């Protein structure tokens, strides 16, 4: 899929209009609270049931390119594309990650009110093969604080040691699943939050409940290395084929790593060891394991023993 360079103004226009007229609102949550979607949970369910899948494969999804240091709101509503995932049909937004950035962090905040979209996040490599899947265990409820409202939050890192490695994670898909739609999230009552903030005993009152909906607004922030927190690694499970959420690629198991991808990591490990940079060699072996090259660590150990 060819990628085109976009100016900041042109990209903003694309994000505001989306693909084929699909709106994406861009709001600075540090200065104001995004207006809630004008779609109820029941209306969203009906719209999803009636929606026709936009595409027959992940490769055909309408991927919107986003730049490094992007910060904006992603609106998933009935105008968004729908796709029949193995875990069920869902509205979605799909993005092409900045290709010229080596390592960066992605922060996701699904905003909660009377309803909330309980997200899944799927990462694909340059060949549109599944590399990682984040689901309900990775999006953690965080109560409102300051100007930030209640939300389901996740953080993940994209690590790339070589720009032209076909195993690099290049695409991000945000969606939900039938299992997540059946759930709900208990929010912290504002009165309890206020009491805790002032060191008082929280009142004995019920907490509000946000029903999970097929529509919602997610704040997405990209932070390039240098300011990204290494703690983001703790939010990312090892390479996943989606056992929990059932989001395997249709009808076939996850394919084996490409020979050229394996060769990239072997060459990189050899070069790092030749330069006596063991830390880099270990990072390469870890990154290789995340994209499916499970023998990279054994290769590294073998090379160390040979030397």
Task: Please characterize this protein's 3D structure.
It is built from seven helices and 15 strands. The strands form four sheets. It has a five-stranded mixed beta sheet with strand order 1-5-12-8-9, covered by helices on one side. It has a five-stranded antiparallel beta sheet with strand order 2-15-6-11-10, with no helix packed on it. Strands 7-14-13 form a three-stranded mixed beta sheet, with no helix packed on it. Mean pLDDT is 77; it is low at 1-36 and 227-254. The radius of gyration is 21 Å and the shape is globular. By secondary structure, it is α+β, with helices and mostly antiparallel strands. Helix 5 runs antiparallel to helix 6, helix 5 runs parallel beside helix 7 (296-306) and helix 6 packs antiparallel against helix 7. The termini are far apart. It has two domains: 8-235, no CATH class; 259-306, no CATH class.
List the total number of helices: 7
Number of strands: 15
Q: Biggest sheet, in brief?
A: 5 strands, mixed
Radius of gyration: 21 Å
Q: pLDDT under 50 segments (min length 5)?
A: 1-36, 227-254
Average of the residue pLDDT scores: 77
For this entry, give a set of tags:
307 residues; alpha+beta; 2 domains; 5-stranded mixed β-sheet; 5-stranded antiparallel β-sheet; 7 helices; 15 strands; disordered N terminus
């Amino acid at each position: 899929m060819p990628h085109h360079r976009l100016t900041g103004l042109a990209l903003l226009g694309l994000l505001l209009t989306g693909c084929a007229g699909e709106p994406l609102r861009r709001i600075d949550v540090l200065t104001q609270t995004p207006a809630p979607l004008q779609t109820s949970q029941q209306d969203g369910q009906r719209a999803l049931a009636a929606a026709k899948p936009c595409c027959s494969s992940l490769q055909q999804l309408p991927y919107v390119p986003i730049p490094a240091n992007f910060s904006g709101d992603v609106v998933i509503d009935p105008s968004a594309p729908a796709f029949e995932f193995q875990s069920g049909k869902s509205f979605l937004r799909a993005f092409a990650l900045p290709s010229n950035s080596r390592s960066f962090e992605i922060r996701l905040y699904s905003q909660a009110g009377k309803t909330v979209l309980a997200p899944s996040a799927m990462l694909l490599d340059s060949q549109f093969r599944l590399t990682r899947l984040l689901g309900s265990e990775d999006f953690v409820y965080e109560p409102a604080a300051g100007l930030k409202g209640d939300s389901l939050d996740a953080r993940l890192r994209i690590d790339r040691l070589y720009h032209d490695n076909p195993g690099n994670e290049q695409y991000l898909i945000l969606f939900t699943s039938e299992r997540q739609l059946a759930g709900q999230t208990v929010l912290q009552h504002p009165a309890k939050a206020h009491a805790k903030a002032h060191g008082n005993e929280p009142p004995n009152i019920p907490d509000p409940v946000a029903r999970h909906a097929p529509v919602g607004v997610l704040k997405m922030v990209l932070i390039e290395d240098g300011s990204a927190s290494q703690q983001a690694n703790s939010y990312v499970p090892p390479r996943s084929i989606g056992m929990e959420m059932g989001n395997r690629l249709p009808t076939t198991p996850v394919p084996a790593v490409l020979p050229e991808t394996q060769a990239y990591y072997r060459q990189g490990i050899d070069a790092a060891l030749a330069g006596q940079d063991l830390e880099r060699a270990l990072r390469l072996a870890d990154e290789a394991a995340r994209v499916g090259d499970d023998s990279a660590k054994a290769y590294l150990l073998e090379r160390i023993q040979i030397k």
